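Exercise 3.2. Students should predict the tertiary structure of the chain below and write it as structure tokens, then compare their answer with the key that follows.

Predict this chain's 3D structure.
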Amino acid sequence: MTTINELVTKISFAFSKLEEVEGVVLSGSQTTNSQDEHSDIDLYIYSDVEILPSIRKELLEPFSDYMEINNLYWETEDDGTLKDSNIGIEIIYRNYEWIKKEMESTLIDFQAHVGYSTCFWSNYLNSKILYDKSGRLQNLQDQVKVSYPYELKQNIIAKNYPLLRKSITSYFHQIEKAVKRQDYISINHRIAGLLASYFDILFALNDLPHPGEKKLLKIVTQKCEFIPFNMEESIIKILNNNTTLLMDINDLVDNLDVLLEKQKFMDY
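Answer key:
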């Protein structure tokens, strides 16, 4: 029986035969040693021009039991399950110049976002290159293997910290209004935003590129040196108990304040 690794190798080889393809990389939990029984296979196909969906469909059919071609919900993707298994596979198509500009934006311009500021850096940094036509992918990966820029850390905290509670437009104040209205959809939406900014700050404070939206509590516990007091307990209470929601958010941010003050990042 063909193993999953063998299937991935064969899929990578098949894509490498397409003239449009510049490179194929394996990414996600498979390359960060964080996979579990629910993990998918994440393959990224880099090119300078579009690979037609009809070509991708024909290429992938021998390797899959089920495949949705050209999903456009987040990025351009083909999503399905590998042949004779229940293991999911996501094949994401990216333009090489686009990812290069994303790396420059993060590591040269030090641009921060509202949540998930360094996810693309983490993704590319931790990718395993399976095929590299001209060496461009390896060259770019070598360039992004740098220490966490202090200016980037400053910008991420400056952009995200006020949104936790300080600004009049902060998530806390939006949640406060939503609680008064009993607008539960809005409450959940704003809590997700608050936690996105919170973890963006926390990973920056620990000089770690943001790993994405999955298994964050586990990753923080395993990899972060600086963790606010009672962080996990506070987050679980926020997500499970609306009766003390605003108090729990205050506790979460108060303890982050203590950590930021110790690290001399309390000017925001």
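Discussion points: Residues 150-262 form one domain. The two ends are 57 Å apart (CA to CA).
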